[in-house]
């Protein structure tokens, strides 16, 4: 899938979480959110991936709560996915999960990275885990549909011989 289509799709689906919101509900204000993390989140939501990644990495250099760190890493996962660096995306999601703040959003973001990397079984596993945490998530259902479509899409290989 061309990168510009991936980018438009991820922006439309809203897979970047604002740094000032709770990692589950998306509505709780986190007091003292780092300005770089907040600006990075806004940049990622606005499609400015390089800037968003740079600001989020800068914000992660400061002392922040483990919950804010996990949210920022989840945002980096989404940012790297949108920029086409799926290995970096998966690494960020893995780090976020290692912090112990396992939220459906992290699994959702990692599922997308796995899907675009062609690892459909891992993507489906993450969708299933996310849905076990939030069975009503429209985003996870959308990713589940995307994984299903990719699994059914025939692959054509043309060889020059």
Q: Kindly, what is the distance between the CA atoms of the first and last residues, rounded to a whole number of angstroms?
A: 25 Å
How many structural domains are formed by the residues? 1
CATH fold group: Serine Threonine Protein Phosphatase 5, Tetratricopeptide repeat
Secondary-structure arrangement, i.e. CATH architecture: Alpha Horseshoe
Cα-atom Rg, whole angstroms? 16 Å
**Helicity range:** 55-70%
Globally, the shape reads globular
Please summarize the sheet with the most strands.
none
Determine the strand fraction and express it as a percent band.
under 5%
N-to-C SSE series? HHHHHHHH
Number of H/I helices: 8
Counting helices, strands and paired strands, the structural category is mainly alpha
Mean pLDDT, all residues: 81
Record field, number of beta strands: 0
The CATH class name reads: Mainly Alpha
Low-confidence stretches: 18-32
What does this structure look like?
This protein has one domain (3-152): Alpha Horseshoe (Serine Threonine Protein Phosphatase 5, Tetratricopeptide repeat). It is built from 8 helices and no strands. The protein has helices spanning 3-13, 35-45, 49-60, 66-83, 86-98, 104-117, 120-133, 138-152. α2 (35-45) runs antiparallel to α3 (49-60), α5 (86-98) packs antiparallel against α6 and α7 (120-133) runs antiparallel to α8 (138-152).
Comma- or semicolon-separated keywords:
mainly alpha, 8 helices, 161 residues, Serine Threonine Protein Phosphatase 5, Tetratricopeptide repeat, 67% helix
């Amino acid at each position: 899938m061309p990168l510009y289509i991936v980018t438009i799709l991820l922006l439309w689906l809203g897979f970047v979480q604002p740094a000032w919101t709770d990692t589950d509900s998306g509505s709780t204000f986190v007091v003292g959110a780092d300005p770089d993390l907040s600006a990075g989140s806004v940049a990622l939501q606005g499609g400015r991936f390089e800037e968003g990644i740079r600001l989020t990495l800068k914000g992660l250099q400061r002392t922040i709560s483990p919950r804010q760190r996990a949210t920022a890493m989840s945002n980096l996962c989404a940012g790297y996915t949108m920029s086409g660096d799926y290995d970096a995306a998966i690494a960020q999601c893995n780090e976020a999960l290692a912090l112990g703040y396992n939220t459906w959003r992290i699994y959702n973001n990692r599922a997308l990275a796995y899907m675009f990397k062609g690892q459909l079984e891992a993507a489906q596993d993450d969708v299933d885990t996310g849905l076990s945490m939030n069975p009503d998530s429209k985003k996870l259902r959308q990713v589940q549909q995307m994984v299903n479509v990719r699994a059914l899409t025939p692959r054509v290989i043309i060889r020059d011989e």
